[in-house]
Design the sequence.
């Protein structure tokens, strides 16, 4: 239950009545701002590691605490295993110890995930992001067994990714509570949009919860989440940094202002076309060395989609 911070006499969503702050909530292992990075490709469909390293460097310069590589936005489903491993190496080479690198290690084949977790660890990853096995639609016992096996496979902190819109099934609260007892399972990327379920997890576990939807960051942090794993932050990391810092400093008015400013940008990046497609298009418009190329079955934004995105960004005051 949230309470009043006696030192500041302000409402503190992280402070339970009669308790001190849990240190992981105010200084979370992966930080507060995380961008789920795109994977740039060359015109001949190779991973453009030079462009990727330049993007990783810029994102950290703009305030990211950690970066996710080979996640959904990184087109993980169409990356080869050696490319995923190479992206971890490249990210670590680019940012060093300035940010943590979280490797997307997920497929819907548990034994493959175990191997990818080990490869990510060997490549120098600081953590792994693991999504619910998709398409298979396992039972909750199967979900629990899958995450437990992956967590046991490598000495890496694990972030659960709960996104039923992509995986086909939610992770039930009871399953998350059981998984939270595993010493390597430290955090949850929550893209379920179920406030009641999220509140229960916040209340009953010490998991560090991140909003998995860019439009929910302010609301989720008000409940006690620690930050966001963002797509829109490719193009707006300083804005997300301002909003997060405002919440952490109890500056609600400032946080609401930035949240409103981000609204059209989030709409343009997240609702007009798939997020990897949109992010590459926006980065290209902004002059970064990122091709708009994506791998099938994704295709580049068509003219109508581009027009809608441009309208949203111009509504936000961007000069494009």
Sequence:
């Amino acid at each position: 239950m949230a309470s009043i911070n006696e030192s500041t006499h302000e409402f503190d969503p992280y402070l339970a009545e009669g308790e001190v702050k849990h240190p992981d909530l105010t200084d979370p292992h992966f930080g507060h701002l995380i961008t789920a990075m795109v994977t740039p490709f060359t015109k001949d469909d190779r991973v453009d590691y030079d462009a990727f390293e330049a993007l990783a460097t810029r994102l950290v310069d703009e305030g990211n605490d950690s970066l996710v590589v080979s996640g959904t936005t990184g087109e993980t489903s169409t990356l080869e295993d050696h490319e995923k491993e190479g992206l971890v190496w490249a990210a670590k080479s680019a940012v060093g110890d300035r940010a943590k690198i979280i490797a997307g290690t997920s497929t819907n084949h548990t034994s493959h995930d175990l191997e990818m977790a080990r490869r990510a660890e060997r490549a120098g990853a600081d953590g792994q992001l693991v999504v619910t096995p998709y398409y298979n639609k396992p039972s909750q016992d199967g979900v629990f067994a899958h995450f437990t096996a992956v967590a046991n496979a490598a000495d890496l902190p694990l972030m659960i990714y709960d996104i039923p819109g992509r995986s086909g099934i939610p992770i039930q609260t009871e399953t998350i509570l059981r998984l939270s007892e595993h010493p390597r399972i430290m955090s949850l990327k929550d893209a379920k949009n179920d406030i009641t379920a999220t509140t229960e997890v916040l209340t009953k576990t010490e998991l560090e919860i991140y909003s998995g939807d860019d439009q929910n960051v302010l609301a989720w942090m008000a409940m006690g989440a620690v930050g966001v794993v963002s797509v829109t932050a490719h193009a707006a990391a300083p804005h997300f940094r301002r909003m997060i810092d405002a919440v952490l400093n109890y500056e609600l008015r400032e946080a609401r202002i930035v949240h409103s400013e981000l609204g059209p940008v989030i709409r343009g990046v997240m609702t007009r076309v798939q997020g990897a497609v949109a992010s590459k298009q926006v980065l290209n418009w902004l002059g970064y060395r990122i091709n708009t190329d994506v791998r099938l079955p994704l295709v580049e934004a068509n003219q109508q989609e581009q027009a809608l995105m441009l309208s949203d960004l111009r509504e936000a005051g961007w000069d494009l």
About this structure: The first helix runs from residue 23 to 26. The first strand starts at residue 2 and ends at 5.
